[in-house]
Structures are given as C-alpha cells and as structure tokens.
Amino acid sequence: MVKKLRRAFMMGSLLVLFFAVLFTATLIFNSIKANKGNLTAILHAASSWTAEASSNLPSLAKKLADSSPTLEVSFLLPNGIVLASSKEPIPDGKDIINTEAVKQAIEKGIGGEVSFKNGWFSPTIMGASLLGEGRMILFLANSDSHIAATLNIAVIGLAALTALLLLVSRRMLNPIATDLTNQLNKVRGLLEGSLKTTDVKADDFFPELRDTMVNIIHLIDKMQYDLQQIQGTLTMQKDFVDNSSHELKSPLTSIFGFAQLLNEEDLTNEEQKEYLSFILKDAERMMAVIEDILLLQKDTVEKPEDITPINVRDIAEEVARSLSPQCREKNINIAISGECIVSVIEQDMWDLLRNLMSNAIRYGKENGHVIIELVSDTIIVKDDGIGIAEEHQERIFEKFYRVDKGRSRNSGGTGLGLSIVAGILNKYGASINVESQKGVGTCFTVKF
Fold first, then answer.
1. Mean pLDDT of 64-93
2. Rounded CA gap, 413 and 289, in Å?
3. Does residue 382 have a pLDDT over 90?
4. Which of 4, 50, 207, 364 has the highest CB neighbour count under 10 A?
5. Residue 121: per-residue pLDDT
6. pLDDT tens figures, 88-112
7. CATH superfamily for domain 302-447
8. What string of H, E and C letters represents the secondary structure of 274-302?
9. Whole-angstrom Cα distance, residue 269 to residue 340?
10. What values do phi and psi take at 271, rounded to 5?
C-alpha cells in the first residue's frame, strides 16, 4: 500500500514535469513562429526600402537591424559577394549562399529556415528575399537568445520543482505511510489474535477507510466467535467420546472380570448368584448409559413445526407413578400442584420431567419431599435433599459431569440426565435456572 502511494505520487510528479516540458516546447514553438512572422514582414517591407535607398545599403542594413537587438542584416549578390552587413566583421558570403533560406529565395523569391547549429536552446531563424529583379539578395538572421534564457530558467525551475516534489512527497507520504502501516498492523493483529477487537477503535483509521474497517472488525469479531464456538464444539465432542468410552468401559471390565470368576469350578451357589447379580447390575448400568446417549442425540434434532399443546400435569402424574418404586425405597412423597399448558412433543416433556424428578428422588433425603409446581408456562421441581455446592452449579448441565462421581454411580446415575434436559429445552428455546444450598435442597425452574 505504501509503495502504491509513493508510486502514485511519483506518477503525479512525472505528469507535472511532462506538462512543464510541453509548456516549454510550446513556448519555443510560439517564439520561433513569431520571429518568422517578423522576418517575413521585414522581407516584404524591404523591397520598397531598397528601391529608394539602394545607394546606401550599409545605412539600410543598420536601419533594419535596429528593429531587434539580435537581428543580423546582410545584402549580397547571387555569387556570394557581400555588399553590406549590420554584423561586424562582415560574414562570409559563401556560408550565407549555402543556407536553405537563400536557396529557397533564389528558387521562389523568398525563403526561410530555422537552424539549431548553436544548440537546441538557441535556435536561429533565417529569412532571405530576392531584390531588384534578382540582382541582389536580402538575408536576415535572428538568434532567439531570449529562448535560451527562458529555457535556462525553465530547467532551473523544473529542477527546483522536482526537488520540491520529492521533499513534499517525503514529508507528506511518510506520516501517511506510518499511519497506514500501523492500521494494517492492527488488522493483522486482529486476524492473528494478538489483538482483541476491543483494543481497536474506529477513530484509529482514516476517515475514508473508517466504515470499511469497522465492517472488517465486525467480521473478524464474528469469525473469532465462530472459531471459538467450533473449537468449543470440537472439545465437547472429544470429551463426550472420551467420557462415553469410559462410562461403557468400566462396567464392561467389571462384567468381564466376574464372567471369568464364574468359570472357576469350586464356586458355591451363593458366590455364583452374587457374581451374576454384579454382572446384571453392570449390564443395566451400560444399558442406561446407552439409552441416555441415544436420547441425548435425539434431543439435538430441531424443533418440529407441528406441535399441539399438552397438559404438563398429566405427564407429571404419570412420571410420578413410574417412579413410585424409588419413592418407596426412601419413603419420599411427591406432591404436584397447579396447571401448565405448553406446546411440546409429549415424549420430550416425559423425558424432561423424568430426569428432573428422578434426580430429586435419587439425591433426596430419607422421608423427604419432592414438590412439582406448575404455573402458566413455568415448571418448578424442588427437593429437600443433599443440595449442590455453588462451585458445581454452573457445570451440572455438562455431559457426564458429576458432583460426587462415586455417589452418582452407586445411585444409578449416568451423568447425562441434566444434559438431556438442557438439550430438550434448547430445542424449544426454553430456559432453566437452578438454586441450591448444600444440605438444604435444590430447586430447578423451567420456563417455556
């Protein structure tokens, strides 16, 4: 970018120089044209003067020469003999006869030429005319010396202009180049991640680039956000695969170990039953993990378009009946109150309530209570169980996250229940909030 600016400035400077040279050339051309016109006028006027004053050619030559300080006037015969001249010493007639102007005059009666024998900056304009029926030749030569002076001034001026342009280009372009380089470095820093979008402001850029750079910053910000989301998704997928493998590998290893023990011949019936019960328990644990993984995958599907409103209380009562064996084991009472109508798939609501209510029972205390409150579009599930420490509350919806890993496995949890709940709610754009106190209980509030 900096090189382009400098190149553009140099092109502008060259254009200025070109027009300056063109102006100078035009000046020379116009000066030569004017001098030729003056000489032609003198040649035409001289015919009448010579007729009256042919006896005093030196005086006439001087009179004609006085019309211009650089004009030379000579009268000569066609054979080259100079009769009179305003120039001292008298020039060689042979040189005059050999000029193109005299040759044209002898042939056509009048002639002229421009000679640059003294240099391109010092042209000599010459003219000649036959006088007295061809017996005599009038030769005029005017050295346009003021053109040389003008050109000298022009050359000096052009040199000064060039130097000034170079100086101005440095003074003007260097700060611009520095600012532009800094701005490009900021954009590069944003792209490379060494700078944050909050570190760069719109005022940091040229006004002409401000709107464009603001759009670029927004695009970079969005791109970085998308990359973070992608990275987060990839990390979550990797963690999910690792955790799934671990959750399935642990009971499978246990099953394999107890199966080997069953091959021993000296086992008693009680030992065989005990080992078989362990195998059955681990198999059930594996099945629960697989079912939750499949359910979690199903909840990533987008929300269907055709959904009918359902009565949440009816489903809550069905879930409560299905959990009655667990409630009897710990003597926990489930109380449901209120009404709630929401538009969701019935199976999704079943899975949501099943996970929240089973967790409330699983981590509830003996002889405790689980309360389900339904208000408008809100579902509240409360228990008076062990509670969740504050440092764990932000992570309980992560896949396979357990507050107490050993206790969760022993109580039959897979670590996916609340992840399934979060997936269902995300599908419908609903929200969930948790309030919990260690040793007091937990309250989940779902709002559709």
1. 86
2. 9
3. yes
4. 364
5. 64
6. 888 888 889 999 989 998 888 888 8
7. Histidine kinase-like ATPase, C-terminal domain (3.30.565.10)
8. HHHHHHHHHHHHHHHHHHHHHHHHHCCCC
9. 53
10. -65, -40
Domain with CATH 3.30.450.20 in the chain: 2-148
Q: Classify 228 as helix, strand or coil.
A: helix
C-alpha torsion sign, points 320, 321, 323, 325 = positive
How far are the Cα atoms of 10, 131, 156 from residue 166, in angstroms, in the given order? 8, 58, 15
Distance CA 295, CA 351 (A): 9
364 touches 385 (CB < 8 A): yes
Can you give the pTM of this predicted structure?
0.43
Where does the chain hold its CATH 3.30.565.10 domain(s)? 302-447
Residue 380 has pLDDT above 70, yes or no: yes
Architecture per CATH, domain 2-148, reads as: 2-Layer Sandwich (3.30)
Q: How far is CA 345 from CA 92, 124, 309, in A?
A: 122, 106, 9
Q: Which of 428, 445, 427 is nearest to 436 (CA)?
A: 445
- Angstrom distances, CA of residue 231 to CA of 191, 224, 227, 228, 426: 16, 10, 6, 5, 20
Mean pLDDT of the chain: 77
Q: Where are the alpha helices (DSSP H) in 66-144?
A: 93-97, 100-108
Contact 363, 411 (CB under 8 A): yes
Nearest to 366 by CA among 394, 392, 396, 330: 330
d(CA 106, CA 288): 126
The yes-or-no verdict on residue 11 having pLDDT over 80 is no
Q: What crossing angle do the helices spanning 417-428 and 269-298 adopt, rounded to 10°?
A: 20
From the list 105, 110, 104, 69, the residue with the least C-alpha distance to 86 is 69
User: What is the per-residue pLDDT across 268-289, written as a single tens digit (0 to 9) for each?
Assistant: 888 788 878 878 876 776 776 6
End-to-end CA distance of the chain: 55
Contact residues for 89 (Cβ-Cβ < 8 A; gap 6+): none
How many helical (H) and strand (E) elements, i.e. helices and strands, does the chain have? 13, 11
User: Distance of CA 83 to CAs 60, 65, 90, 411, Å?
Assistant: 12, 15, 9, 140
3-state helix, strand, coil in the chain (%, to 5): 60, 15, 20
Assign 300 a pLDDT band (cuts: 50, 70, 90).
Answer: low
Of the candidate ranges 171-175, 385-389, 423-427, 433-437, the one whose mean pLDDT is the lowest:
171-175
Percentage of the chain beyond pLDDT 90 is: 17
